[in-house]
Amino acid sequence: MLYNEDFSVFASVSDSPVVAENSVEPTVRDLLTLLQNVSGRLEAMERKIGVIENIEKRMGAMEKDMNNLWVAIENKVKKSGRARDAHQGQDRWC
């Protein structure tokens, strides 16, 4: 059983209760059921991937904001350092 689902796409066709009575080959109904199961799983995966992509976009935006904040902080530190150096230089020459 995969991903807590009640059905398994990988179950053998002979395990299916709807197998043709006197034949080993699956019926059209069996094949359609399997295809519906695969389709359901693909839709579930697409939803999960969509959520992951949304999180990825948010993380990218957050990283960009953090980089902008980091640059702003570095600029303020540089400006305050220059102002402090200029102020200390005035004290020496006065």
Q: What does this protein structure show overall?
A:
- By secondary structure, the chain is an all-alpha fold.
- The chain has one helix spanning 28-93.
- It is 70% helix and 0% strand.
- The chain has one helix and no strands.
- The mean pLDDT is 81.
- The chain has one domain.
- The chain is rod-shaped and about 105 Å long.
Report the mean per-residue pLDDT as an integer.
81
Radius of gyration: 32 Å
Biggest beta sheet summary:
none
Question: Spans of 5+ residues with little confidence (pLDDT < 50)?
Answer: none
Share in helix: over 70%
* Number of β-strand runs: 0
Distance between the termini: 83 Å
Total tally of structural domains: 1
Q: In percent, how much strand structure appears in the residues?
A: under 5%
Sequence of secondary-structure elements:
H
Q: Tell me the structural class.
A: mainly alpha
Work out the helix count. 1
Shape: rod-shaped
From the structure above, extract its key features:
0% strand; 94 residues; 1 helix; mainly alpha; rod-shaped
Question: What is this structure's SSE topology?
Answer:
Blueprint: H1 28-93
Summarize, please.
The chain is mainly α and 94 residues long. It is 70% helix and 0% strand.
